[in-house]
# Entry
Amino acid sequence: MSLQYVKGIGPKRAAALKTAGVDSIQKLLYYFPRDYLDRSRIIKIKDLPKFVEAGDELTVIGSVFRVELKRTRQGKRIFFLTLKDDTGYLTCVYFAGYEWFLKAFSVGEVLAVSSVPEFDRLNRVQFIHPEFDRLKVKDEEDDTDWSALLHTGSIIPKYRSTEELRAVGLDNRGFRRIIKNAVLHHIREIEEHLPAEMLSKNSLIGIHDAVAKIHFPKSYEERDAALRRLKFDELFYFQLLLAYRRRELKGELRGIQFSVKSPLARQLLQSLPFELTKAQRRVVREITDDMQSSSPMNRLLQGDVGSGKTIVALFAMLVAMENGFQSVLMAPTEVLAEQHFWTLKNFLGKLPVNIRLLIGGQRKKLREDVLADIYRGSANIVVGTHALIQERVEFANLGFIVIDEQHRFGVAQRSLMREKGKTNPDVLVMTATPIPRTLALTVYGDLDISVIDEMPKNRKPIRTAVRSRQEKEKVFTFVKQEVLRGRQAYIVYPLIEESEKIDLKSAVTEFKRLSENYFPGFRLGLLHGRLASEEKGELMTQFKARQLDILVTTTVIEVGIDVPNATIMIVENAERFGLSQLHQLRGRVGRGAEQSYCILLTDELALKKKTQLASNRAEAYREAAASKKRLTTMERTTDGFAIAEIDLELRGPGDYFGTRQSGLPEFKVADIVHDTALLSLARREAFALVHDDPHLRQPQHQHIRKYFEASFKNFLSYVRVG
Ligand code: ADP
Ligand code: MG
# Structure
């Protein structure tokens, strides 16, 4: 049955729903609440002043008493909404959108408004730009006694809405009504897809119950039971996908069986100015074991910044070379590709290895030459960016692939690169983003994992400090002292051009100021993303050769840059950076034997101002708190894993991995950071299923098969279900 025939929908609403991606009854039923009115946060108006200090978001339920538009002396118009409950009156202020608000509210209707309470100039509590939820329009027949809500047990769902949806009456209240109808009359149109046995074994409720109760739970226990089932579904099918991908990669394909005797690798080992750490040696062994095996390698190499992943990869590439195969190393940025190229060249010294660089923006003649070298097979190791996966790049005999900084590439790119090999090449993915182990199972559930969990011995822990902008003078004096002692420094800025909205010091304008006011007589270089790749390379070479004292830069410096003599990292507007970004930046220093420093400069005044001007106060407060937590975390620890856990916590997995790119599906209800127990259950069930009935032929698995194929249409190119 089509959506428009659900009671309360009709053609107009159906069309609007379609724009939001809801084009069937099934999808409407799966349009889960984004939240519930949290009864523990509903406060009587007279009690609000007590909570101003705390800065938490609170909700007030009341009826609209007055709406009015006022003009300030400057002629600005401001919208005021006065709400009344049985204990008093509350003023809500909107500085923008007054025309809309004036029409939106009418006296007598019942609203729930949520915001962080604040005092106005006369010490009266007010809400600025609160979120609102219409509970009851005036004179509507409605059997809910909203004023008694605090005492009843009902839990009220809130739904995501848009301009288009609100225009046809589908605000929270509208959604509650049509979804109620859909649940009442159409819930049976959803099919139970999991076998009864799997449900009872894992204490999961049935799908009809789950969908009904996620919308209209009578208690939080009911809501949680519903959530648990729905989360399990998401996690189970995702793990099923991974189980298939792994099966495909491991079982059925034949890879290259390398012989791991490598005189070149031995020569390299002898020429190194340092000894490999125990962890490095263990990982080299794990990799070469894989290379010897007949199934293709798919291995993730995790190691904190500076732990020495590159040299490990190089050993493997030499093994590949001596078996007559070419290798590639793909990096996420040109700067990094170029640096890898020079690092490898440097390590190799006089060893007879032909290593080439392929990046965008190279001169045509050079590029043709590199391409020919790759095509003929005379290039043994090719370092590059995603330019490597373009169609025109043809390899004679690609056998080993290293992908650096995985989270910037996707599963799709991994596959494209793999397809450049004639046989099934071995793939090593390197990441400096430390991923908590349980999570690694999820995100890279189809890969084997190696970890370098030990830093080279010659390192001193980096000292980190957060300083305010007012102390800049002092900080820069310290930088000068260190430079005069022969060290080098980075100064990083968040943006390269003045942004209109936020007053950030751009690296470009700041560079001038630094050179003229703070560091006259010192040698400064400016490196940013808009420079041509040759200019970037040139600057890096100069910096490495100590022809520059201070490199002023943007986040292009973030990944992988390696200049051991640089011992100072200054980050300007550090409050604007993400945690793993800061960790990466800090990882640019502390790479040699000298004591290194990381100083995070913050602009507290700007942050405060920004919070005050924000249209969504609650969010601005949250962001300010998160930013503080990021900085204190940096001061407290240099442990990449600890930092990753906190970063995940602060950002959520979608943001952390960049959902789109990582090949991680978007989970509607599951949270792969916190639902680890459920995740393990789902994983066990999924892997057992693929083991027992790989082609999903048994009758009780038919619904699973159908659901799986429908859920992962876009992913199915990676797997074959029978
Ligand atoms: P990662 O890529 O893991 O961040 P790199 O491979 O860039 O780290 O290595 C960081 C630096 O440490 C490089 O200068 C490298 O030459 C050096 N290095 C690697 N392994 C060791 C080791 N075992 N002992 C000392 N220095 C090492
Ligand atoms: Mg690296």
